[in-house]
Write a structure and sequence with these properties.
alpha+beta, 18 helices
Amino acid sequence: MRIYLVGGAVRDELLGRPVKDRDYVVFEADEESFKKRFPQAKKVGNKIPVFILRDAQYTLSRFKNIEEDLEYRDLTINSLARDETGKLIAHPLALADLKQKILRPISRENFYADPLRVFRVGRFAAIFKDFTLHPSLKPILKELGQRPDLLQKISPERVGQEFLKALAGEKPSRFLQVLDECACFVPWFEELACASKIPAGPKPHHNESLLEHLGQVMDKLSGDALLVWMGLAHDLGKTITPRSNWPRHLNHDKLGETLAKNLATRLKLPKKFVFAGQIAARWHMVGGLYDQLRPGTKVDLLNKLGSSDMIKYFFTLVRADNELDFLPRAQKDWQKIKSVHLPPNFHYNGPKAGEMLRMLQAQRLVPRT
């Protein structure tokens, strides 16, 4: 049995980056012999035998040797392996491309063998903000962009996982940029298919396209995948504004709530992302006017956010979108309304109890003279 550490772990080690995921390929072993050596390993793959052991993934390779295995990977910078002695095995161009910061495809056929690699390229562009796409890569992506039938066959969980990793990247806007330039938004990100042709808003507030605006907000929020997702979701409603209304986008906040939910659900994102995307789309306009809101509206917004954690996320988004920082004020208001309690005689009055609590909370936010 021969075991090799492969792909991203070796790449990140060579780049001096933290190694997060460890993937191994195994040769000269079947499932029985592997389980005998590693009895605690749990099988998770069906078509190809894949096992999980102590947060690492082991794949029983279908290739003859490690050199052949590396030839079937996506990019040269991922075509790397170390054997159990630490010896490095690399694609002939891998080390040079790492040094020169190039995302180069190994072959066109490899992308057709697994079209998910379209979204992996977007993910790597977001993670490695200084890397450039090799001239041979875009034509391959554009070809696949013309084959939504192939992209549609990818499982939503796989696309969603690549998307989440891109959201955690150093420059998440590059994920959108790659998919836009190669026309690969359909079918998984169909809401954004025309975003680069839609004005973000009227001048002088906006001089950029909607896609550029979303990317700018996402990059301001980089470092937290949930925040970056909220940055993408907040203006999704603008993608369905009738052309005749451009550059204005009336009711885009209300319209965007459903679009954000649809996109998150399609990609099987965690429930927290579904909720956060809807909140970002529906309430960001209200949040940007926080100092002008009536006390009752503030109560409704803060209770809708539902926790101090989401209040922090939401108002961080508002600041990234329009450079207004209402977070300290909102946090103080949240503490005030949390301290309000119903009188005992209202505890069992059904809807009237809710109305009374809202009134008391609103009164608590009225400035005292």
